[in-house]
Amino acid sequence: MNSTVTFERKLGWWRLRFGAGRAITYLVLSVVALLILLPFFWMVTTALRAPDEELIRFGPLLIPRHVHFENFVQAWETAPFGRYFFNSFFIAIVTTLAFLATSAMGGYAFARLRFPGQHILWLATLGTLMIPAEVLLIPNFITLAKWLHWSDTYYALIIPWTVSAFGIFLMRQVFLQQPKELWEAARLDGCGHLRFLWQILLPQVRPTFLTLGVLKFFWTWDMFLWVVLFTNADDMRTVTFGLYRFTSEVGTSYELWMAASLMSIAPIVLLFLLVRRQLIEGISRVGLR
Amino acid sequence: MGNIVFLALRLLRLVWARIPEKIREALLGYGLLFPVLLILGAFVFWPLLEDLALSLFHGNLGNLFKEFAGVANYKDLLDDPVFRKAITNTAIYAAVSVPITMMLALSLAVLLNSKIRLQGFFQTSFFLSYITPTIAAVVVWRWIYERDHGLLNYYLGLIGVHGIDWLNSPEFALPAVIIFSIWKYVGYQVVLFLAGLQHIDKQLYEASQVDGASAWARFRDITWPLLAPTTFFVLLVSVIEAFKVFDVVYALFPSRPGGPLRSALTAIVYLFQTAFEGFRLNYAAAAAFVIFVIIFILTILQRRVFERRIYYE
Which of A172, A288, B137, B288 could covalently link to A135 via disulfide, CB atoms 3.0 to 4.6 Å apart? Predict the structure, then answer.
């Protein structure tokens, strides 16, 4: 009898503690989410204010008195953002497609085919994971700008980024995880390697393949150093580099800065919101960049 | 014309079918790897050798291999206060930003891992800053960091801290970079930690709860040891990323990349300035090689852990 009472009391205490813990959990998570989202909120409110208008205090937040959409129009007209967007989309789409192709091809060659020299080629490919592109800037600049004369061309911005050991490594991993019987069955039906890869294997690993593609799109859109180095002409700039130059050219009119930033992140944020669940699951599975 | 192409294709198929399967497989393998090897060869392996070669010569833009210099460039680097400053700054940046981000991310991941609602919402909000293009985020933060009307100083003013010149004073430039990078990367690490946490067997927690272990004891005795591979992995990836930092520093201080009095000059920014603003390509090639060796050592450590982790799963 006594022990039951103690147990009951203990259970009640646990519930209370658990409840309080839950409240604190939600509080902490909400505060951090707010801190992370605040810059986005400010980006929007500042983009909508009139030039030099002071924002008014609304609780802990600052908001404009009136909403002004002209900033977007003015930002769009001040710099050729249409051209920047075209460049960014073109470069990101082409790079991503080529990267997916080379990753699938390379991954397949290393996972499913057997040929002389394979092990050495595999080690060489893996070895490039240890060499960050940043430290190869100088020789790559000499190759691309001095020998190939590719400054201010799409080639310089696309071709070096169409292959990465990471993509090949990842595709090899997922190909190896697929059952061997798939290939044996396909071969009995007279299916060749390429058709097997395209029609059977790739659909099997679609979630990973798409995650890889979305990430590559984001990384390519984010590319900055390379664009700074290889573009001089205004009409070759990407959104990222165009935005950077825009901020020095218009001076400190923050409402224009924020309008331009907001435009420049819009496609990425929209894409992210569309695929967020698959992307976060994919990254959890894949684990790294 | 169409007929000829058709015939040629048929002929090719016939010939292909007559080649023994082993050789066909090898040819296909080399064919599939051809673009991969071409690009990696031209833009990774060749440049690595070229960088090493460049670093052993004195030269100028017209003639990069003017005279053999041996290790002279490397010797000069060791005495170069700007290079040392860049490496020190990078190390400080890594040593401060990485542990703070990781502790924050781990705590958030543990909180998220309990049975709570809105998990998806929180994860999405945390991840939003990681997915936002760096330069656009930096532009917003330049506004936030502004001294007189900036939002950070406005809020700091409410708690009595006034007039910090985040972007123009040598004391606050590197902290500004660090705060930004915590904001940018914490959500990404939360996702990685959460994935690690979800691999831990729930029964262990249930058992310890029956034993009456406190939340802290559960974290110390179950979560922390079992999460160790993830933690070490995140640590090394972040340290390497920290050593490669460029965009933030370059864009946060646009009028003087490297910050006031080079207080936020990092390794890759130093490399960029030496090579493409000072046009000392040979000297910069030596600096690049030193930075490469530093990152290489960190990467080997990381790969080791990574391979072990894959082994476990």
Answer: B288
> What is the ipTM score, two decimals?
0.89
What's the pLDDT tens digit per position in A82-138? 999 999 999 999 999 999 999 999 999 999 999 999 999 999 999 898 888 999 999
Of A42, A268, A277, the CB nearest to B120: A277
For chain B, the domains span 2-55, 72-312
Which secondary structure element, helix H or strand E, spans residue B226, and what is its range?
A: helix B224-243
In this complex, the residue of B143, B195, B285 whose CB is nearest that of residue A258 is B143
Residue ranges of alpha helices (H) inside B41-169 are 46-55, 72-79, 81-113, 119-131, 134-144, 151-158
A201 touching B, CB under 8 A?
Answer: no
**Phi and psi of B279, rounded to 5°?**
55, 35
Record: contact B33-A40, CB cut-off 8 A: no
Domains, chain A, ranges and CATH?
A: 2-68 (no CATH), 71-286 (1.10.3720.10)
Query: By mean pLDDT, which of A226-240, A260-274, B47-61, B288-302 is the weakest?
Result: B288-302
pLDDT at residue number B173: 95
Assess A229–B contact: CB distance below 8 Å, yes or no. Answer: yes
pLDDT of residue A57: 63
The DSSP output letter for A250 is S
Test B143 with A46 for CB contact under 8 angstroms.
yes
Q: What is the DSSP letter of A113?
A: -
> What's the CATH class of domain B72-312?
mainly alpha
Half-sphere exposure of B109 (CA within 13 A, CB side): 28
Q: What is the pLDDT of residue A1?
A: 45
